[in-house]
Hints:
Elements: E1 2-5, H1 15-21, E2 25-36, E3 55-61, E4 63-68, E5 71-77, E6 80-84, E7 90-95, E8 100-109
Antiparallel strand pairs: 1-6, 2-8, 3-6, 3-8, 4-5, 4-7
Amino acid sequence: MKKLTLNDLPDGGTPATLAAIGAGWGPVEAGGISRYDDPGHRTHGEARHVHTVPEIFCIVQGAGTVEIDGAEAGRFTAGDLLIIEPGEDHHLISEGDVPLVFTWMHLSRR
């Protein structure tokens, strides 16, 4: 997993820049936006959750911790970008009274 902020992106963070974050990966192939109101909510439940392509989370609102391969891998807050590598089991856990809102994007293979 890599963690960046929006300020770390060149060119103001255009979609092409986001695709370039995962070297060797192409444009966004799927994506969406999610909102979780309850503190302590863990995305994807207890099941293992992995992809064969990188996934990028852009935290829009709220804060929490990210879990990678069963271990806490750090905290995140609004404005952070989390880049999940292919094969990493990943979950976001919301914290605080502000609902967690984030976008997610899967990059395609080139």
